[in-house]
Protein 1
Amino acid sequence: MRNARLIPGIAPGTAVSFTFNGQTVDGYVGEGVAAALMRAGIRGTRTTARQPEPRGYYCGMGVCWECTVEVEGMGTVRGCMFPVQEGLVVRSPSVRSEEDL
Amino acid sequence: MGLFTALNLAEQGRNVTVVERGRIWSEASAVNAGSLAAQNKLPPLVPYTLAAFDVWKSLPERIGCDVDYHQTGGYKIATTPEEVARLRAGLDAQRAAGLPVRFMEPEEIRSETPWLSDKVLAATYCELDSFASPIRTGPGLHKALSRLGVTILEDTHIRSIKASSGTVHLDTNAGAIDARQLAITAGAWSGKVAAMLGSRVDMSLDVNMVSVTEPAPFTIGKIVTHARGILTLKQVSNGSCLIGGGWQGNGSIDDQCKDVDPDQLTHNFILANEIIPGLGPLHILRSWAGYEGVSPDSLPYLGQLPGFDNIFMAACARGGFTLGPLFGQLLCELMTTGKPSMPLEAFHLARFDNA
Amino acid sequence: MTKPVVIVGAGPAGLACATRLARNGLPVVIIDDNLQAGGQYFRQLPPSYRAEPDAKLLRETKRVGTLFPVLRDPLVTYLPSTTVWSVHDPLTIDYAGPAGAGRIAAAAIVVATGAQDAPFPFPGWTLPGVISAGGCLNLAKGHGLAPSGKVVVAGNGPLVLVAAATLAAAGAEVTHVIEAQPTWRVGVAMMRGALLSPSLLFKGAGYRARLMAHGTHFLAGKMVSRAIGQGSLEAVEIASVGPDGKPLANGSVLLKAETLVSGYGLLPGTEFVRMIGCRMMRDPLMGGWVPQRSETFETSLAKVYAIGDGAGIGGVEVAIAEGNLAAGAIIDGGASDGAAKRRYARLNRFRRILSGAYLTRAKLSSATDDTIVCRCEELRLSDLKSAVVAGDTHLHRVKSSTRLGMGRCQGRNCLSSASKLLGLDHEDAALPLPRMRPPVRPLRLNDIIKNQSIGPARVPDEANASKQER
């Protein structure tokens, strides 16, 4: 099920596809990673380290970092501020556990 | 230093009052990077560092609080032939002082620590190097002191001190305080407190910078220090990396202002990234600066204030976070029995008087 | 070469300021964290998107044509996706971002950092599907998206209506709009402002009418008491606002929803001014702690100006007016701005009336002891309460003993709510919030070290060879 859809009358750019945690996701050139994931019905985009609980798009303006994802070759990015590209490999940020130490 | 001294005195049943100009646990020990590195100590301090580790180990049980103490071991790295020579030259003195140190050749470094860059030519390894969390230690100490009935007076400025044998009289903005003994454990301010008694204790000020990264997957299991003492690095239990090395920020204790210096901070980052390239993609979340008092020979002041039989000082430990728990104990021993369990001659306050 | 004026933030305030400065021949550098200029109000679709003339996207386009051309002015350097992370000496700035890093000696600094949604914790507010009002508007304006499924919009303040109307126009299924302030209170207060800005009142009435036509239920005097769902939002519990500002236990209702838009007010983005040490003051009608400013919007630091929502919540008209006036102050001390100042004074009165209309009698709170307050460090209200030493009025210690605000958001999404919930938000608090440490936003180490203009290293080793321990 989609979590968000294009507003009538908005023509997005060229379609691209990328992967999120191994799953192929459709996006548009220039579209934020978080927006593309919402259109794909992916709501929880990461899991917190301690509790653990799901988190996703919240502030939409780069303040809260709740939509943080990891982009291969790049590191963590704010999903709401980072545009998708063809072939982008995106993951939920790796969580550490205190037992690792 | 002061809180550990208070802890020891209170455990001995003494009636203790802590007088703090601002907030307790808010200066050097609270804002340092948490390294408890044995390899970084000047040779005369090594036996004290080893003894301090034992105090650290028993601390959680003693104060009833996890302080995130981890004896991970640590690498002290060298990136130039001169630095390698410096590492080698230091080995004998370190071993003689009782420190188990192993020299690592490049091949061993590549296989054991692939996250160190090729610029690292050699390293020494010491299994005793550790770290602890200043963030957890302070509140834990605070609670323990409250349980022991220690009076803590914050936002309390000392205006003047009068001392005679057997009594010390402090005049503060919060009223007068009379005591039998006084321990000056005011960090970088200790020299100013001593000056109120007409004593001169020389110290200069460092403004050390520390930075913390976002949490990252666990990679760096051990602490990293540098042959020239210009980098410290560790990954703490939430996955964040702490980057330090004594690069200097701006500030003075007169105006209470301390700030990072963007130039020196950037150089600190350049060096860290050269040695551990995996740091490059990580976001820096915070950088800050902290005061540190330094004596002319970089050795601590620990002992009686010359001319006063009931006034003492512990300051300028150059690694006060490491040594604080032990120095608090030694100072307590000196104040209560006059017989500290380790020799304190090298730390005598009057050692520069003839210079 | 003339030193440029550095403007931090490319929203309406920053763009208006830049436009007038450039028109007067002054070089300007605009530095902005976002990919595209416009701030939140004028947030743009990705450049490769197109909006048909009949697109169901409620947004203002008419002033884009007057505010945005400055970005292409030859006197203007525009650095998007970039953060100013240090100010020193005393008007030199260091910036960094994926596109590069550098240093600029500025003639003046104009801080136009805008606002964010005020954090408002309630049980379940961390569930995916709960989004902020600003986040909802950015989804529409910045990505051309509307949430699917049932949507509840809840909050306190003018933005609630704006968000709900935008969603309704976009065809989203907005079932309920929940406003904490009783309608009659908003109405009575707004009567005073009616003459100052009739157009804005018409706008508000228009939003209401649009929502009624859409079939949306409008409930006033109610608030969110919790959000429920397994893995993501499924339902929202709504309760009446009690006399203490907390939800009343009796008579709460459960509304099915896949998306909850939560808009409990706006918070000025003061991290930058707090980092560089501007003196702050507290003004509830401006959104809480704001920088002290002179009549020309100069902060306590000489030649550092603060304008727009980041200096006090006022909305787009106030932001543009302040941008224009700050430019005037920089150009000629504001000598030619008599009429503009009078117009601004009227806007300023109206913004305080609008703020006041929504100011509830008691501070709103739906947080329970079990509610996460610090989202990054996963700290519940009970964790924070146990760290507060009796009588302590400082948030610093709570921060250092719990890790409150030490995550990636750097305290933006927790410090203001924590200080309110812990009762540390006193009028007389000398230091309201812990000092903001650089960098003002998380920056990649790799991006910071790209700066080629830094001064020489003072290697701590060479400064004193005997210093070993750090």
Protein 2
Amino acid sequence: MSELRWNPLLGEWLVTATERQERTFLPPPDYCPLCPTRPGGYETEVPAETYDVVVFENKFPSFHRHPPAPAIEDSAFYPVRPAKGVCEVVLYSPDHNATLAGLPAKQFLKLILAWTDRYKALGDLEFIKYVFIFENKGKEIGVTLTHPHGQIYAYPLIPPVIVKELEQSFRHHEATGHCLICDIKDQELRDGRRVVAENECFVAYIPFFARWPYEVHVTPKRHIRSFLEFEERDRSDLALIMKQLLVAYDGVFNKSMPYMMNIHQAPTDGLPYDHYHFHIEFYPPLRQAEKLKYLAGSETGAGFFINDTLAEEKAAEVRALIKPIVW
Amino acid sequence: MTVHRKPNETETAPSDAQAPHLVVEKEVTTMADGKRQMIFYNFSEAKTNGHNGHGSNGHDRHGA
């Protein structure tokens, strides 16, 4: 069963998705459902031997285009809603052992074009208010399938973290007339100590307020709200800086770096959101090669993050690993 | 702790000269279960006139 339940204590919705208990969990490589179907082999999700990027609806979705009726009755105190939305899987490569970091910069560009198309198509659906593009990479994050892939959740409402960013951005704009994320980006560029990489259109930095040791935000220098406002140069520079960052990440501990990649864009509910600004947030969970930064009591129970590191030192570490990228 | 960034230390080489101009071919199908949608994106490189910076019309996605 799948439904939205209102949390009156925090003032936010959560979704139940009981069928996800049955989803495939770390299958052996020979039985990866995300690999292409091989001649004479078992039938996977992908009936093609090769492709550049493929996107399909998740077999075990948290949100459904045609959601089932909620398992419990709605009430004024505990509102319940159908979990109407769309969950998609984005395959980065037919190669089971590839990682995004190891793919050529051109593949990043292809991915950005596919993401743009999905943001537009899903955002155009009347019942979709927010299109969230993300990747969970690595067993440390809890991925159940290791084939290189990301996901898209098209929500019927604006999710809580984005609501908070929008509120802060709105308040800052009301008070100063400026975009908050433009001001953060300008402050990081002026200071420079936390900048990791930079090109004409984008800057990557560990923000002053980082919660994770290697958290990096990738922000366009122009005031852009979503992929729909990208020009060709924006796309190519984003592809280059993402590739630089992910290669550098893999150099930090000399192993494939696990991370959560979260693309924050304007909602798709029809309002303008002129005060908001596209950016990508990367959260690697490692604080040392074999030590995870756990979200324990303070972080999870109180929402008060404890960062065991200084952003300035970690930025210098990642910056030293940035290398030029060629097409 | 003093970890100052050197000017241009993180700059990439100029990227616009070699940036590929991609044209997408999109194929929308229905998956084997007859319910779910699947989209294949395959790209080819188009020849450019060498200009791909800001000032383009912003509508260069060629159907993507």
